[in-house]
Amino acid sequence: MFFLQELMQPKSGANGTAVTEFILLGLVDTPGLLPLVFVLFFFAYLLTVGGNLSILAAILVEPKLHTPMYFFLGNLSVLDVGCITVTVPSMLGRLLSHKRAVPYGACLTQLFFFHLLVGVDCFLLTAMAYDRFLAICRPLTYSTRMSQMVQKILVAVSWACAFTNALTHTVAISTLHFCGPNVINHFYCDLPQLFPLSCSSTQLNELLLFAVGFIMAGTPMALIVTSYAHVAATVLRIRSAEGRKKAFSTCGSHLTVVGIFYGSGVFNYMRLGSTKLSDKDKAVGIFNTVINPMLNPVIYSLRNPDVQGALWRVITGKRSLT
User: What angle do CA 85, 52, 27 make, to 5 degrees?
Assistant: First the structure.
């Protein structure tokens, strides 16, 4: 407990002063647009939370969806609710109060939980790719290789790795001295936004971000690509066109989510050399924290009759006949 309290205390710079809060400028500078921004993000938040919790409810109540793939999807829905909750409610609160200041400790806390949830998201997408690999390429041993115990272990390992990653970056950023500028041209706290404000060198922190990022993102991405390379090779050997279509349809939604997740993430963290944050960075931030979690329920239910049927039964209160 003492360690955490010490971690959240700002460090003094060379002149003896320390930044105790950061000023988040938000998304727009025009006061007249603030009510519109509030309404848009408020409804986006409600839609995202409602959509993901509906997917989770559908998975829990529909026996057809009690499979490993939907077990991981249910966990992903919980993470999406967490990711948007870490950033959007605090932004809405600042819009209502017209206060842009965020305490140093609150900023680091937001950074920690954001990296924790995104990290788990990253590993869960890998587990889902592995599940598709086993289901399509190793169907005879699928039930034993992807047992309930294996599913729980994969989720537990995902949380442990993501927690280690998030804590590493939070401890590393807490060693930096913030003694001068404290204005962040963004709507939430993250490493690319904090590095330019440091009075001390961030070279080691940036190297750490790239090194750990390679492990946290590069390794899962390589495993996903390898899994789907085997899946594609197996599916192409299926003689029936209908069989190939059915096999690929189970992977399409997941590949779409992976593409959006990694595409926006790479753009966000590969721009650390930029000294000035632009509107493009804010747009990528919106994509990471709002659009991705909002789109995932739509992507996974759009072409999935089982999920659509389960969602309809959740909405209408009807029970499944099976």
Answer: 40
